[in-house]
Specification:
Blueprint lengths: L1 H24 L3 H7 L5 H10 L18 E3 L5 E3 L8 E6 L4 H16 L5 E6 L4 H11 L6 E3 L4 H5 L7 E5 L5 E5 L7 H9 L1
Parallel strand pairs: 3-4, 4-5
Antiparallel strand pairs: 1-2, 3-6, 6-7
Helix pairs in contact: 1-2, 1-3
């Protein structure tokens, strides 16, 4: 009986804490909007009371931007919905790009430093898969997944038009940064700001 009465209270406190953190951590109106659907505790309570259902165990809600599938450079299937619920770094690179090679070490370090807290995914394009596999091996970035996007479908989905770009998403799938970080400089701070 105690577990039945304690679970809704714990879930409500957690939801309120997450809503409060989301509203205060954003530096722009978009971050505030992402937390505005539940402006006060009462509207948040009905979903909480239904959360203990089997659907709640399936994981966080998947935003539209993460509803894609792909294949890794190793030929394994990849489902973008697995990224939901955690901050995500999408690193768009091309195998022949010297700027991308210069970003590799810092990107790999950020991925290693935030295992379990954030996702880091390489999105390779503008060449053939064999060259992409060589890039991953040469740069020592095999510890996180790299998608083979030869047709540019994922690049188009995130409106990326050139290599050596980062798209950083918050845990709700909202873009909080998109651009170039020479040598990956500043990536660690951006990810720490979303996980810390």
């Amino acid at each position: 009986m105690r577990a039945r009465t304690a679970l809704p209270a714990v879930l409500t406190v957690t939801l309120l804490a997450l809503t409060g953190c989301g509203a205060g951590s954003g530096s722009d109106d978009e971050a505030a909007r992402s937390s505005s659907p539940s402006p006060s505790a009462p509207p948040a309570q009905p979903p909480t009371s239904s959360d203990p259902s089997p659907d709640a165990a399936s994981g966080p809600e998947v935003p539209e931007v993460l509803r894609f599938t792909a294949t890794t450079v190793d030929g394994k299937p990849f489902d973008g919905s697995t990224l939901a619920g955690k901050p995500t770094v999408l690193w768009f690179w091309a195998p022949w790009c010297p700027k991308c090679k210069a970003q590799a070490a810092e990107t790999a370090k950020v991925a290693a430093d935030h295992v379990g807290e954030a996702n880091v995914v390489g999105v390779a394009g503008l060449d053939k898969n064999a060259a992409m596999k060589d890039f991953v091996a040469d740069t020592g970035t095999s510890e996180f997944p790299h998608l083979s996007d030869e047709k540019g479908d994922i690049w188009k989905r995130f409106e990326v038009t050139e290599q050596s770009r980062y798209v950083v998403l918050d845990k709700d799938g909202k873009t909080v940064y998109e651009g170039v970080l020479p040598g990956g400089e500043g990536l660690a701070e951006k990810v720490s700001g979303l996980t810390g």
